[in-house]
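Recap slide: Xylose isomerase, sequence and predicted structure.
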Amino acid sequence: MSSFAPPSKKAKRSHSNGAAAKSDGDFFPGADPFGFPTISRHWDDGSNSMENAKRRLRAAFEFFEKLGVKYYTFHDRDIAPEGDDLKETNANLDQLTDLALELQQKTGVKLLWATCNLFSNPRYMNGAATNPDAHAFAHAAAQVKKGLEIAKKLGAENFVFWGGREGYHTLLNTDVRRELDHMGSFFQMVVDYKKKIEFEGQLLIEPKPKEPTKHQYDYDAQTVIAFLKTYGLENDFKLNIEPNHTTLAGHSYEHDVVVASKFGFLGSIDSNTGSPDLGWDTDQFPMDIKNCTLVMKAIIEQGGLALGGLNFDCKIRRESTDLEDMFIAHIGAMDSFARGLKNAAKLIEDGTLDALVRERYSSFDKGIGAKIEKGSASLEELEDYILEHGEPKMISGKQEKYEAIVNFFV
């Protein structure tokens, strides 16, 4: 998994800065629900030992250096194996994060974000923050406490939450209101502890509509924004958008990026793509230049991603078994977004597309439209307006023209 930090006139970091992650994205063994692993690496003996974890971490940083990226990301259970109990697990994390800190200092590679895996262990089969068992909820809280501590230790710029098991398979055994209330309380505890330990990173929530849960509570950007506002968390969290999840929710690739940005909630991006025709999460590397262009346009228009970046939370295909395929995939994805950045900058500089959008909404710039936008119009006033001016004219949306303009720059 790699990250690429994007840019703009106001961005805090150059588009040449990147990050790569110590995770299954880089060390995917090629297994799937229908077949055994197809990929083996000389640095990974397949064991869950501390020695193997250290080899994998060293190999990851060598990979980051060879790619030339400046940031990386990880799940807590990717970087260190679980022990027999929480105490042993935390001790394992201490050892591996000591090594990670040493490697960060040696290479200059920084931690873009850390996160906790609150979905793989069977204890979380019914959820973590939304688990109907308070004991499981407490374990998730303890795991996140440690996660925030190691994030601070390693200087993480963000901390991500993805609720793979935060949802339901059937409403028959689910109290939706209690589960969401519990999740709201969970995140408030996170905010409180973040302040207590003075962790300065940005908190992020990553939407996804389904998989592994049939229905996830963090369905898409609008759903998460509504959740944050409902529980008074809107000033403490932003969103980490994965467009592959966006298409699973039935939206276009860039939809959640644009929605989150327009409402001030876009914090970072996991830039995976997928195959919308399949209906499940394929975590492919982004190679579609048009998609990359539209995402970069949104990033430039909001002035960059501040503490965030473009993270390639992707897997090479099961059939891509050569070592060089790891490099080709990451470099190709970064090049796609670099080209998308150039395209987006030209599209914005040209101004034709944005001018057409402004013209489309120009009736709200003055007169009755301006009163509507300001919230000073009434139903009675609008009725009088229609009685005086009659039926509105049909105005073409000119979708094909907009698409042709974008194609000119792609």
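DSSP finds 15 helices and eleven strands in the chain.
The longest helix spans residues 323-350.
(End of recap.)
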